[in-house]
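Appendix B, example 12.
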Amino acid sequence: MKTVLITGANKSIGFETARQLLQQGYFVYLGCRDIKKGEQAVSQLQQEGLTQVAPIEIDVDDRESIKAAREVLGRKTKVLDVLINNAGISGGLPQPPLETDVSIFKQVFETNFFGVIEVTQAFIDLLRQSPEPRIVNVTSGLGSLTLHNDPTWKHYKVKPASYVASKAALNAYTIVLAYNLRDTPFKVNAVDPGYTATDFNNHSGPGTVPDAAARVVKAATLGADGPTGQFFSDDNVPETGISPW
């Protein structure tokens, strides 16, 4: 049975991603900052008959929490097949580039960028034990610098400074990580789940959580012939499903 760790998994897209992977036969570790909320999420899934699931307490902003989560998971399994870096924050809106305090930038980067790096580095040894390891970085269409520079893009006027910068940085990390692992069985990709109605945006998005999660699951379950180093975005480029960086 393949194993997957999902950060920020006790609600919304992360939770639905867990549900869909459980339905495909994966054992899912729900990464949650609040273990009680994680336990509640696990209980809900088990009531649906999805029993191969367990909570893992992990705060991606806290190095000691990440280290502890790695130790806990290492006692449960010697192999991790999939890491989904899903945890993220918006930093609040609006975020004008000249007025947004640098503390907001630092806070958003800590979760959306540095947290991903620390989690990936912490669990890479377990991922290396998998014959087909997958790393999925959940990004945003707003992380595309090419699209942000295109006045015809449907989201052209939406430019929350710290969030855009953090996701662009995450995309850059995805590129260099995929390159670094290019001669291995790893598949490393960024996925834009789309503008989805969640707590993250006060349920303003037109997309559904199941559709968003399905995009993440697709990248998490790529076969050996699947691509690596890609920016998947059905929302922004439905023709190809691949967004420009």
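Helices lie at 12-23, 35-47, 63-76, 102-127, 145-148, 161-180, 209-220. The chain has one domain: 3-232.
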